[in-house]
Amino acid sequence: MMTKRVRLSWVAMMVAAIFFIADAFSVTASAAQKVEPSKLEMTAESTSPVKGSTGKSSNPMRDASDEAKEAAETVADASKTEDVSDKSDDKEDNKSSEEKETVKSGRDVIAAEQKRKKRDFSAKPEKMIRVGLATGQSMAAISAGDGFVVRDESTGKGLEQRGKGETLMVTVRDHQMMLNGKAVSARKIRIATADDRSSMRLTYAGNPYHGEFVIVLDGNTLTVINEVGIDDYIGGVVDEEMGADWPIEALKAQTVAARTFAMYSMKRHDDEGFDVCATTHCQVYGGISSESRNGLSAVSATRGEIMVYDDKPIYAAFHASAGGWTAGSDEMGLDAVPYLKSVRSDDTFAPGCHWQEEVSVNDLSIALRSNGYAIGKLKKIELSPLDDEKVSKKSEMAGRYPSGHVKTVKFIGSNKTVEVDGYELRSMFGLNSTCFDIRYGTKSSSKPNTKGVIEIKHPATDHIVFDGYGMGHGMGMSQWGAYKMAQTKGYRDILNHYYTNISFKKLF
Ligand SMILES: [Zn+2]
Fold first, then answer.
1. Which of 97, 365, 408, 468 is the most exposed place for a label (fewest CB within 10 A)?
2. How many Å lie between the centroid of ligand 1 and the Cα of residue 275?
3. Ligand 1 centroid to residue 121 C-alpha, Å
4. Which tens digits make up the pLDDT trace of 457-496?
5. d(CA 78, ligand 1 centre) in Å
6. C-alpha 283 to ligand 1 mean position (Å)
7. In this structure, how many other beta carbons lie within 10 angstroms of the beta carbon of residue 372?
8. Cα 44 to averaged position of ligand 1 atoms, centre (Å)
9. C-alpha 487 – ligand 1 centre gap (Å)
């Protein structure tokens, strides 16, 4: 265990990362319609491979209505995914290891892999997931610590065999795929290690991954997909979302949430040929180089476990910190979901949980106007006060949900009065959460809002401060709340606290 000082500073660094990743699950609705399209671009379009490619740190406002819609659609998709129960029987196990010689197609390779896992773990075969590592590529470099084979996915025909340490360069010329400079007619290829028992892993762009690669020719570019077992995938996800030195029960809770989210997101990118992307749009996945020993033990301790409601994977939203109370799904402009309700979250101790954002009245007016609220000269802002006590005490207040998160803020101008949703304001000003108060003045000299009315005296020079708690949309599990609970509780207690009325289910 690291010293507390080291851990805390490391943890503080993680907070920012956690916020952006957790926020990928943000599903604010209509707010994003008023954000310019460039801010809504999905990183699945990114041309660089996963790690460090999201560029999200400059864009805290990417909560997208599209995501909300997709999320709703994927509920249906998730419910349509095939039955995950084990339908295979054991007769296949009697085949000898020579079967690898008779592998006819990539699909068979996958089947062989599943059978191998079955033998190894005496359990149901692990469900596979197709992770889009990159789209729009002009080339892809694949290598392995061992020999590997390349097959045409549609015919099963072997196209290439590379030896240990050799690289396969896949490029495109005139809408045709090229393997090490040689044109092939295949539009989709599968790359697997020559010996499915090999512990050596394939690498893409220098990063090692479990499972196999599928490369698809899409017009004049390439899409690189990693087909991998769910738990191998989760192992490369969990440490991107939570620090490896966090309490093990918090890591287990994160693992189950991430696995549930993956199941919920199955086929989300089906039109691009894969299930999930490897960025914050779905979940950040870094393959083997993102794994840690603690993360992997959390994965194996919760092997195949997900949360369900009505026997379907839930929308397992999570965020860095809630600021006292989590937000119900209805607070984000979504339909009320039975398992995303506002609950107490002991996390105001978290680094960065208390935050301030200063805005000049001039900038505020410009932002309101460009978002369709032409109110003239701003005179007053109405929002019921949020004091520290309210953060820890659930109560009904004007303009707020019982959780304290802002429902609407009233802006009174010389031309008209408008009410703006809290999540819309969050998006407009890049606020860390919707649990905030508005104060008159600057960061260093702001007066607390005691009356619920903020008078604007000199619109040309005045400032206001958004003074808030929490990082992220506030729905579902608070990671810092989980950190705290993990001192005394188990991961299922944590999940049962943040997701109400759910059940646990073993997929494999
Ligand atoms: Zn995605």
1. 97
2. 8
3. 30
4. 998 899 999 999 999 999 999 999 999 999 999 999 999 9
5. 15
6. 7
7. 10
8. 6
9. 33
Alpha helices in 265-360 (DSSP H): 293-301
Q: What gap in Å lies between CA 190 and CA 109, rounded to an integer? A: 9
CA of 151 to the centre of ligand 1 (A): 27
pTM: predicted TM-score of the whole model, two decimal places:
0.75
Express each pLDDT in 230-255 by its tens digit.
Answer: 999 999 999 999 989 999 999 999 99
Q: Quickly state the pLDDT bin for 450 (edges 50, 70, 90).
A: confident
- How many whole angstroms from 296 Cα to the centroid of ligand 1? 23
Secondary structure string (H, E, C) spanning 453-472: EEECCCCCCCEEEEEEECEC
Distance 268 CA to ligand 1 centre (A): 7
Cβ-Cβ contacts under 8 Å for 277 (sequence gap 6 or more): 42, 43, 44, 131, 132, 269
- Residue 276 C-alpha to ligand 1 middle, in angstroms? 5
> In one letter, which amino acid is 149?
V
390-395 long-range contacts (CB < 8 A, ≥24 apart) are 391/323, 391/324, 391/325, 391/348, 391/435, 391/469, 392/324, 392/348, 394/325, 394/342, 394/344
* CA 19 / ligand 1 centre spacing (Å): 17
Residue 344 is encoded by which pair of tokens? 């107490």
pLDDT value of position 47: 24
Task: Assess contact for 252 and 496: CB atoms under 8 A.
Answer: no
The Å distance, Cα 48 to ligand 1 centre, comes to 14
Q: Which residue has the higher pLDDT, 30 or 482?
A: 482
Going from the Cα of 416 to the center of ligand 1, the distance in angstroms, rounded, reads 40
- The length of the chain in residues reads 508
Confidence (pLDDT) at 397: 76
Structure token pair of residue 325:
């109370």
User: Residue 60 pairs with which residues in a beta bridge?
Assistant: none
Instruction: Output the CA 445–ligand 1 centroid distance in Å.
Output: 42
Distance (Å, whole) CA 463 – CA 237: 41
Q: Report CA(393)–ligand 1 centroid distance (Å).
A: 37
The separation between CA 497 and the C-alpha centre of its own chain, rounded to angstroms, equals 21
Q: Per residue in 274-292, pLDDT tens?
A: 999 999 999 999 999 999 9
- Distance from Cα 378 to the centre of ligand 1, integer Å: 40
161: number of CA atoms within 13 Å, CB side? 5
For 181-226, the DSSP string reads TEEES-SEEEEEESSTT----EEETTEEESSEEEEEEETTEEEEEE
Residue with tokens 């089906």: 270
Q: Mark residue 257 as left, alpha or beta (left: phi above 0; alpha: psi -120 to 50; beta: remaining).
A: alpha
